[in-house]
Known about the structure:
The protein is of the alpha/beta class. It has helices spanning about 50-55, 90-105, 120-130, 145-165, 170-180, 200-205, 215-230, 230-235, 260-270, 295-315; strands at about 1-10, 15-25, 35-40, 60-65, 110-115, 135-140, 245-250, 275-280. It has a single domain, classed as Alpha/Beta hydrolase fold, catalytic domain (Rossmann fold).
Amino acid sequence: MRTSTFRLPVPDNGRDAVELHVRRWDANGEPRAVVQLAHGMAEHSGRYARVAEVLTEAGITVFANDHRGHGETAMAPGDLGYFADSGGWQRVVDDLYCLRQHIAAELPELPHVMFGHSMGSFMVQDYLFSHGSTDAVVLSGTNQGSWALARFAVGVASVERLRLGPRGRSALIKKLSTGDYNRRSEGRTEFDWLSRDTEQVDRYIADPLCGFDFTVQGWIDIFTGLGRIGTEANVRRVPKLPVYLFAGSDDPVGRYGKGVEQVVEAYRRAGLDDVTHRIYEAGRHEMLNEINRDEVERDLVAWLERTVERHRQRAA
Length: 316
């Protein structure tokens, strides 16, 4: 597996361009497909090196950028958890499209799969009706947004922004949004809800680019995005593509499997007829870092191989 990184300038509505930090893992041998990965909240693309290695061994090239306010795209520690002064959610979704265009120019003949985990899965859900430029979709640790709940959350966060400023960090928002995530976990650390694998949890805690508190403006952007993906009108605009969803039954982000099933039902009502999902018993939020990650990776590769083969047959 050959690994490389590069900086991708992206437009910023007339302001100075933002440069995304992008990782690329090249397939072993001739590539059969490309996966574009959107990471989750308060982490970065480097955490996906293991699954990238698995995918490259299966003949799949992988690209993953650090979102604005994350990883090596953030220019300073104070930028962590801050997308933009305004319109941050749409900008990070549009960033995915910019990377998609770069990939299409580099590897125009390969089928393209958009993969999103957690917050990244919400971005990918938005990407589907905002841009739609992909051949298949994988959503990990996801949920269905709620317009009404998101509107209430934006209201609360807007009050906190008046109190703390856009770059302030609100203990109240954190408590209301993620405060009960450890409810079904042992409570050894505040991040036990991520995985039953204590080594993986400790690595996350030790990583200075993980686990940071989001800014108030960042929360407003996320709540705005959750409202967008939760509207029936937007779901109806999703292209009729193959979709694979997976999560753990003890994942609080996916509301312990119920949120994932709601996304499945919403997509099927919208006319998508190739929607597959898998809920792993007792799994937590990061199934790719769980104690049964080998099984999760095998299932993912098997779905990708079937989907890529069907795409090849249709294109022939």
